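Both lines are quoted verbatim for reference:

——
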Amino acid sequence: MASEIIVDARGHHCPVPTLRLRRALEDAPAGAQVRLYADDPMARIDVPHFASGAGFEVVETAEEAGTLSFLIRKPA
């Protein structure tokens, strides 16, 4: 499988992380995975809500040292 597309939105407040994720997913090929890093606590709510509403799959969600990590898959 191809490597992940990384979107680092740490240091930005919502909606910026979600907007950057959306742009990356729109530009990504079908079946691609995009990993978003964000440190705004609102991303915990906004990112899964955006992904499900837009037809993307949240594969993984994690948090370490105040940084949220989301792995989102674009359907094939």
